[in-house]
Amino acid sequence: MNRVHHKCSYCETTASVAAADCPGCRAELRCGAHDALYVVALVVSIIMWCRMLVAVHAAEARAGWVIGLAVLISGWGLLDWLYVDRVHFRRRRARDPDV
Fold first, then answer.
1. Measured between alpha carbons, how far is 14 from 11 in angstroms, rounded to an integer?
2. Is 76 exposed, middle or buried (CB count within 10 Å of its CB: 0-12, 13-18, 19+)?
3. pLDDT tens-digit map of 58-99
4. Count of domains in the chain?
5. Dihedral sign, CA of 49, 52, 56, 62?
6. How far apart are the C-alpha atoms of 17 and 28, rounded to whole Å?
């Protein structure tokens, strides 16, 4: 279910999905999976690639690359599909106050 507008969790203002931040409180609007999950998908694909290099003969090392790349692409696609409706508003930290 793709929504066009989201309600800010801080100020209850309606913000468009295309907006970079909330028009009411200027909180940053982040959509999709958390960045750390993409790093996990990358690490899992590297581990799969290393395991394939050990399992197959050195002449068939391309199989490890192909399988690692397939795991990476499918992992990222799965994350995008699972977290398509995840929206997170994040307040920006205040800079050093002017003295």
1. 9
2. middle
3. 667 677 777 778 888 888 888 888 887 777 777 766 555 554
4. 1
5. negative
6. 12
Amino acid at 12: E
Identify whether 66 is part of a domain: yes
Range of the domain at 25: 5-90
What's the angle, vertex CA 61, arms to CA 64 and CA 51, rounded to 5? 45
Q: Which residue has the tokens 């295309």?
A: 18
- The whole-number pLDDT of residue 99 equals 44
Tell me the C-alpha to C-alpha distance, in Å, between residue 77 and each of 45, 82, 90: 13, 9, 24
Evaluate whether residue 96 is within a structural domain.
no
